[in-house]
Amino acid sequence: MKKTITLLVLLFVGVTAFAQNKNAKASIEVDGVCGMCKDRIEKACFKIKGVKSAVWSVETHELQLIYNEEKTNLNAIHTSIASVGHDTKDLKATDEAYETVHPCCKYRDEEVKDDHKE
């Protein structure tokens, strides 16, 4: 009985020691000004296979991500966000993509930014 328990414990330790954590966490700075921006940014992330969690803060402009490194990478996530009109610290959205965002979401316009300040 002792040998069986010892064998099971060693087997369990061996399996957990070699298990790889596929999930990565990252924080990305993304420009935006309101709740509509939040929805658009988060939806752009979830379009990417492998993204498990995406939460963007209107106040801090930080996007907190959890994603499977075997299925995607940060470059793909930056590209998806830029394609819906939002700039990231590493990739700027094209002018054409930026023009598709709602007028109240024009985060490059200082007047719009001022309107969203509390």
Give the topology.
Elements: H1 2-18, E1 23-29, H2 35-46, E2 51-56, E3 62-68, H3 74-83, H4 95-98, H5 110-116
Antiparallel strand pairs: 1-3, 2-3
Number of helix segments?
A: 5
Shape: elongated
Major beta sheet, specifics? 3 strands, antiparallel
Widest β-sheet, arrangement of strands:
1-3-2
Gap between N and C termini, in Å? Answer: 68 Å
Low-confidence stretches: none
Relative helix content: 40-55%
Determine Rg (CA atoms, Å): 21 Å
**Average pLDDT reading:** 88
Order of helices and strands: HEHEEHHH
> Tally of extended strands?
3
How would you describe this structure to a colleague?
This protein is of the alpha+beta class and 118 residues long. 42% of the residues lie in helices and 17% in strands. Strands 1-3-2 form a 3-stranded antiparallel beta sheet, covered by helices on one side. β2 and β3 form a beta hairpin. It is elongated. It starts with a helix and ends with a helix.
Question: What are the main properties of this structure?
Answer:
single chain; 118 residues; alpha+beta; 3-stranded antiparallel β-sheet; 17% strand
Short description:
This protein is an alpha+beta fold and 118 residues long. Helix content is 42%, strand content 17%. Helix 2 crosses helix 3.
